[in-house]
Design goal:
Layout: H1 2-37, E1 43-49, E2 52-58, E3 75-76, H2 81-94, H3 124-128, H4 139-145, H5 156-164, H6 179-193, H7 197-206, E4 227-228, E5 234-235, H8 244-247, E6 250-251, H9 253-264, H10 269-277, E7 282-283, E8 288-289, E9 294-297, E10 302-309, E11 314-320, E12 325-331, H11 336-351
Antiparallel strand pairs: 1-2, 1-12, 3-6, 4-5, 7-8, 8-9, 9-10, 10-11, 11-12
Helix pairs in contact: 1-11, 2-6, 2-7, 2-10, 9-10
């Protein structure tokens, strides 16, 4: 009886190991095929399943370097930053600093003066699920003024002018992607903790998880990739400023897999916070939204995902809590179609 049990355990281990190898080989094959068709675009992919990590990378750090991209190479994760910010908001709930359905009125910096029509109207969850109805930063205009650093001119004065001059929420309760909403969430975190967003994300996330290659200020590091616009021209990394909590964190596949492992572990603080963000806060015929995350369901799976596009790079993070896997895809060119096609192909042929 004992011998039979030992044989069963060994067989199960071999089966699980082979299955894991099969998945990673298929993922590598998909990424390799994409790189063969797009040899000038660098790609870094991290995958975790049942706490086991796998990485595949293709391309060089830049055109002048022979150094290959690896799991530690730095990319712009852009709006994936919003998942980090929403997790910090959920951690603030755990810390009893706020409630997710609190109105934002008492949590904003004093420079903001809400119009009477807006008072006791907008909840923290509205900001985090993109349904606040607040006007947003005009990125088109900013790009025209400074295509390399479009957010460099955005200041607290810019934000207070937008908010204080708003007298009506034209589409409150309807989905409209919002950079200013996540900027306000960063400022709310600063108020409840009495620290800068930079200090908060370091204390609550970067240091506990030892995400040593996740950067918030100084991006001039040796293992940094070079960003490229859709035409292949060089694009600078966005600099840190007041909009940081909406999309300015830089990281790599290794650190983002570390984050995914914490998210998938419901016993960790970050995992407990992530579960809060996975609740449906908005739903229409096109989408379901949690806090900072898109929720996609089919007949067998529920996955949580977030995309990120800077002016020069594209990325996507995705995980399935029930099946205990997560994936991060980082591309050194602004190419949202490519990163979405890669995820779709991996999901449809390997993970579904």
């Amino acid at each position: 009886m004992k011998t039979s049990l030992k044989i069963l355990v060994v067989l199960l281990f071999i089966s699980s190991f082979s299955f894991g190898q099969d998945i990673t080989k298929k993922i590598d094959s998909i990424i390799n095929d994409s790189h063969q068709r797009n040899p000038n675009i660098g790609i870094s992919v991290g995958f975790v399943q049942n706490n086991k990590e796998y990485y595949t990378t293709y391309g060089n750090l830049n055109a002048e370097s022979q150094m290959k991209i690896n799991k530690n190479s730095i990319f712009e994760i852009a709006s994936i930053t919003k998942i980090l910010t929403s997790n910090l908001i959920a951690q603030a709930v755990i810390d009893h600093k706020l409630r997710i359905d609190d109105y934002i009125d008492d949590f904003l910096p004093k420079a903001y003066i809400l119009h009477e029509n807006l008072k006791n109207k907008i909840k923290i969850s509205d900001l985090a699920s993109h349904q606040s109805g607040l006007p947003d930063i005009d990125f088109g205009k900013l790009i025209e003024l400074n295509p390399q650093q479009p957010v460099s001119s955005v200041t607290e004065k810019t934000l207070t002018s937008i908010i204080n001059n708003c007298s009506e929420l034209k589409d409150y309760g309807k989905y409209r992607y919002s950079t200013i909403g996540y900027t306000l969430l960063g400022q709310i975190l600063e108020k409840v903790y009495g620290k800068s967003y930079d200090e908060i994300i370091r204390y609550k996330m970067i240091k506990p998880l030892q995400m040593t290659n996740t950067l918030t200020k100084d991006f001039n590091v040796k293992n940094r990739t070079i960003g490229h616009n859709p035409n292949g021209g060089i694009q600078e990394f966005f600099e840190w400023n007041i909009t940081a909590s909406a999309g300015l964190v830089k990281s790599n596949a290794s650190d983002m897999v570390t984050f995914l492992k914490a998210v998938l572990n419901k016993e960790t603080r970050i995992g407990k916070a992530a579960i809060m963000t996975e609740k449906v806060f908005y739903k229409d015929e096109k989408r379901e939204m949690g806090l900072g995350t898109n929720i996609v369901t089919d007949e067998k799976n529920t996955i949580y995902l977030k995309t990120g596009d800077s002016m020069g790079q594209s990325s996507i993070i995705c995980y399935n809590r029930a099946k205990n896997w997560g994936i991060i895809i980082l591309i050194d060119q602004r190419n949202s179609k490519m990163r979405q096609d890669l995820l779709n192909q991996i999901y449809d042929t390997v993970l579904k």
